Amino acid sequence: MTITIDNITVKIKLLKSETILAQATVILFDIWKEHGWKVLKSDRLHSKFQEYIWFQAPSYKFIGKWNEIVFIDDSKLFDEVIGKIYDAYCLARSKNPNQGKDDETVIEEVNLDDINL
Description:
Shape: globular
Structural class: alpha+beta
Strand order of the largest sheet: 1-2-3-4
Order of helices and strands: EEEEEEH
Helix content: 10-25%
Distance between the termini: 27 Å
Number of domains: 1
Number of helices: 1
Low-confidence stretches: none
């Protein structure tokens, strides 16, 4: 079985944090959910999206080093997943332009399959 970007959906939750902008859940075949994907602030400009952000797959810290729990071998599919996370993040952010400025956390679940992009 081959996994394509069409088999993947993304839900995003905007956070009020200094460093973590959002958390994403990547869903495979509407069955398997991978929690823990992150959209983070960066001091470097992202080459593709031209924003000061970076993306982190679910991971854990052990002896001062971050280790990924989820790794996508197909680099093209990985880039497509990151693109889908970014699209969901942008859509949620456009609905909540004051993200990170209010006292309360804004939670927005966005399913890209429900809209026409």
